[in-house]
Write a structure and sequence with these properties.
Layout: H1 3-10, H2 13-43, H3 47-83, H4 87-123, H5 127-142, H6 144-159, H7 164-186, E1 187-188, E2 191-192, H8 196-220, H9 236-268, H10 272-288, H11 290-308, H12 312-348, H13 353-366, H14 370-385, H15 389-413, H16 420-443, H17 458-471
Antiparallel strand pairs: 1-2
Helix pairs in contact: 2-7, 2-8, 2-10, 2-11, 2-12, 3-4, 3-5, 3-6, 3-9, 3-10, 3-11, 4-5, 4-6, 4-9, 5-8, 6-8, 7-8, 9-15, 9-17, 10-12, 10-13, 11-12, 11-14, 12-13, 12-14, 13-16, 14-15, 14-16, 15-16
């Protein structure tokens, strides 16, 4: 056992969380720079262009979410096999995940591209927003395969505790995106800018380079995972396992994405200014969630490896400590956001006072409950990493279908709050879902799932875990 594995499996939990979480947070900060850079420059085009991006993002996220369960299954299994000391299984899982994710991404990208106009008509976007939104979505769907491949690369590397290489790749591509964004959006010299479409194109170029770099690193095999061409022969027993393990993950992420689309319907009914305010507020929320996402990803790796090593009690301690950190950390960030809300919104849209005022109200209504997001993310990460994907799926369905959208609809359409009712739905959801998820976690049934079985038992174990979780 090397020093890193010793820390993850038996050393200080705080040190292990920090060792993983800090570089992951840096990676997430840099990755968010893609959206921040796009939002910053697109905001200079006007509120209609910001609305075009805001409407498009949930749709592309939905298509990506549908296929993400397979990548999630690969990351979970790679972490558990690493904890169990089965390096050959880690390599095998990685190769099969690359194969499945690539095929799935190509299919979903083509479907999303063809259906883009129908998505926008269903959303009922205004004429001023439609053309830019369609262009943004088309380019985004062309790049879906690269987004999938690089996300899969990061997830697998994170599963084995390797975070330095993804950090280097993200740093380089973000710098490149920073240069390409204004060039593609506004043009330079004789080159005519492409507007909103240019923002998507700049991201496409940089994401494709990141995906290619990830595959090359896997093939060279110097950073914990080594792929061989022979490993890409389809292994149907693993594919079956990945399906039963990953299907709830796809449903979970799809439910969250579909919830965003349904919310977009509701937001769109209040006009372009509300759409733009919602888009800016959502961007700020994504920024604020970066530390909690990094912490939850660290939890996923540590819980996965400890479950693979047969130590569920340590996995429980890791999750509870991380949830406490998430609660306190995001509550503190929320207090700061409450004070500086107008300035945060003005960073994205500096010249529209109506959007600044409405966006600041959105932030101030929801920000003091952000600690609940930290708790929920850590618990969901533990459920996923232990193989209890169905738990995470049910929480997502409860959050979106039972709490957030019904509350948002009732408060916005049937009370004097108007679009403020949408803002309040975020606060209500954060509190209720965090409380439910933590109580469910404390029951402890998630500790009984074991995925690292012999090959002959793999598919059987996964199917049984899927059925048993549904019975609970």
């Amino acid at each position: 056992m090397n020093e890193t594995n010793h820390l993850f499996l038996s050393g200080s939990i705080s040190k292990a969380l920090l060792k993983l979480a800090v570089p992951i947070i840096l990676i997430n900060i840099l990755q968010s720079a893609y959206q921040l850079t796009d939002a910053f420059w697109v905001g200079r085009l006007g509120a209609a262009q910001v609305a075009a991006v805001s409407v498009s993002m949930p749709v592309t996220f939905l298509v990506i979410a549908i296929g993400s369960g397979l990548a999630m299954a690969g990351a979970i299994l790679s972490a558990q096999y690493m904890g169990a000391g089965q390096q050959d299984k880690v390599n095998h899982v990685a190769a099969q995940t690359v194969l499945m994710v690539t095929v799935t991404a190509i299919c979903l990208g083509v479907i999303g591209y063809l259906l883009s106009p129908y998505f926008l008509h269903l959303l009922g976007v205004e004429d001023a927003v439609y053309n830019d939104a369609l262009k943004f979505m088309h380019v985004s769907f062309v790049g879906v395969v690269f987004v999938f491949i690089y996300a899969m690369f990061q997830a697998l590397m994170r599963g084995i505790g390797q975070t330095k290489v993804p950090l280097i790749i993200v740093s380089v591509t973000v710098l490149l995106n920073f240069v390409l964004d204004p060039l593609f959006i506004f043009g330079y010299g004789s080159f005519t800018g492409l507007g909103v479409m240019g923002a998507a194109l700049a991201t496409l170029v940089t994401q494709s380079l990141a995906a290619i770099a990830g595959i090359i690193i896997f093939l060279r095999g110097r950073h914990g995972i080594k792929l061989k061409l022979s490993s890409f022969i389809p292994d149907y027993s693993y594919i079956k396992q990945a399906f039963f393990l990953g299907a709830p993950g796809s449903v979970e992420l799809s439910a969250r994405a579909f919830g965003l689309i349904i919310m977009s319907f509701l937001v769109a009914s209040f006009g372009t200014q509300t759409i733009a305010s919602y888009g800016v507020g959502s961007n700020i929320l994504q920024m604020v969630m970066i530390p909690a996402m990094g912490l939850s990803m660290a939890v996923s790796t540590l819980v996965g490896q400890n479950m693979g090593a047969g130590n569920p009690q340590r996995a429980e301690k890791i999750t509870k400590l991380a949830a406490l950190w998430g609660l306190c950390g995001l509550s503190f960030i929320g207090a700061i956001a409450y004070i500086f809300a107008p300035y945060l919104v003005a960073f994205f849209i500096p010249d529209d006072q109506g959007v600044i005022a409405k966006g600041a109200q959105f932030i101030r209504i929801m920000c003091l409950t952000w600690g609940g997001i930290g708790v929920q993310l850590c618990v969901v990460a533990a459920f996923r990493a232990s193989g209890n994907m169905l738990n995470a799926m049910l929480l997502a369905l409860f959050s979106q279908c039972v709490v957030q959208f019904p509350v948002a609809y009732i408060l916005s359409k049937h009370t004097p709050l108007g679009d403020h009712g949408i803002w309040y739905s975020f606060a209500v959801t954060n509190v209720i879902v965090a409380s439910l998820s933590y109580l469910w976690f404390c029951r402890g049934r998630w500790q009984q799932t074991k995925l690292t079985k012999d090959d002959k038992d793999i598919a059987k174990v996964s199917q049984e875990a899927f059925i048993e979780d549904g019975a609970h």
